[in-house]
Every structure is written in C-alpha cells, then in structure tokens.
C-alpha cells in the first residue's frame, strides 16, 4: 500500500484488508460479502483512492473478522485484481489473491427474468465460468450467456 493510502485509513490490529478493488466497486464488494455493518465491528471503506498501479482503487478494512478464501473468491468477477490481507496483532500473516472458481453458487441473480432461479423461491443460482480469461459466464439453469457487466448491473 502506498503512503497516501496508509494515511487515509487507520492501521488495524486484527481483521481483513481488501486492497486494489476497482473503483468504485467497494460497496458492491461489501454487498457480495454480506457485510452490512450490523455486526457492530469497525468497517472502513475508502473509495477512489489514488493508486500507482491503477489510476484509483477502493480499499475496505474489516476489523475483527478474518475472511476465508471461499468468501473472498466470490469477489473474482467484480474485483479480480483485489488482494486480501489478513492482519493479526498488526502483522500481515497472510496475503492472497482472488482465484476464480469454476462456478459461483447462490450469490448472483441470473439476468434472465424468466430463469427458474428468479421465479422459484429458494433455488440457488449457479453461474458457471466458462472462460477464466475472457470471463465468459453461463447460467447453469437457463443456459444464458452472461457478461460480467450484465451480471453486476443486474444485482
Ligand atoms: Zn438463468
């Protein structure tokens, strides 16, 4: 993290820092991770932080919560460049990149209004990642091809 972004958000003792989120997707990231703030822990969100690598980025710091790999892998479609830093007692104990899973179950709504996953209560969506480079997606139920933008805009 660069010095300027260090100043913006305070260091945390324990928790998870999600860095290098494409601006301005931090709020979407919180949504997908199901972090609402109701849990009561301190959550810092910084939008449009100047960055050297990319033009700007978003940062999220979630105190006293260690996000697991299976949780952060859900971010693959919306923040593929993000890095996940697990902090314990002010030390970085784990740094990981997001890996694209083969399919994402139950997090995104299929953009096809007539899809059974949108009409049947309790049925979980299954979005298959057909191509991990071009991010070509497909709903496993209605077989519709979906772009990441379509998927994100529909949520
Ligand atoms: Zn579908």
Explain the overall architecture.
The protein is globular and about 45 Å long. Strand 8 and strand 9 (145-146) form a beta hairpin. The two termini are 30 Å apart. The chain has two domains: 3-97, Alpha-Beta Plaits; 103-154, SH3 type barrels. Helix content is 18%, strand content 34%. The protein has a five-stranded antiparallel β-sheet with strand order 2-3-1-4-5. It has five helices and nine strands; from the N terminus they run αβαββαβββαβββα. The chain is an alpha+beta fold. Zinc ion binds next to loops.
Quick overview of this protein structure:
The chain is α+β, with helices and mostly antiparallel strands. It contains 5 helices and 9 strands, in the order αβαββαβββαβββα. A hairpin with a 4-residue loop joins β7 and β8 (136-139).
Descriptive keywords:
SH3 type barrels, four-stranded antiparallel β-sheet, 18% helix, binds zinc ion, single chain, five-stranded antiparallel β-sheet, 155 residues, Alpha-Beta Plaits, 9 strands, alpha+beta
Number of distinct helices:
5
Strand proportion, as a percent range, falls in 25-35%
How many domains, as an integer? 2
Helix content: 10-25%
Blueprint (SSEs and pairs):
Layout: H1 3-8, E1 15-22, H2 26-32, E2 43-50, E3 56-63, H3 69-72, E4 83-88, E5 91-97, E6 103-105, H4 116-119, E7 126-131, E8 136-139, E9 145-146, H5 148-154
Antiparallel strand pairs: 1-3, 1-4, 2-3, 4-5, 6-7, 7-8, 8-9
Bound molecules: zinc ion.
């Amino acid at each position: 993290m660069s010095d300027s972004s260090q100043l913006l958000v305070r260091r945390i003792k324990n928790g998870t820092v999600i860095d290098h989120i494409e601006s301005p997707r931090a709020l979407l990231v919180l949504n997908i991770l199901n972090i609402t703030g109701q849990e009561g822990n301190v959550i810092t969100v910084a939008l449009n932080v100047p960055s050297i690598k990319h033009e700007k980025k978003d940062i999220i710091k979630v105190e006293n919560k260690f996000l697991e790999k299976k949780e952060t892998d859900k971010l693959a479609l919306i923040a593929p460049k993000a890095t996940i830093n697990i902090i314990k007692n002010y030390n970085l104990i784990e740094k990981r990149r997001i890996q694209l899973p083969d399919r994402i179950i139950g997090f995104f709504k299929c953009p096809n209004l007539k899809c059974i996953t949108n009409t049947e209560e309790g049925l979980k969506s299954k979005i298959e990642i057909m191509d991990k480079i071009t991010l070509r997606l497909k709903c496993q139920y209605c077989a519709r091809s979906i772009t990441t933008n379509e998927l994100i805009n529909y949520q």
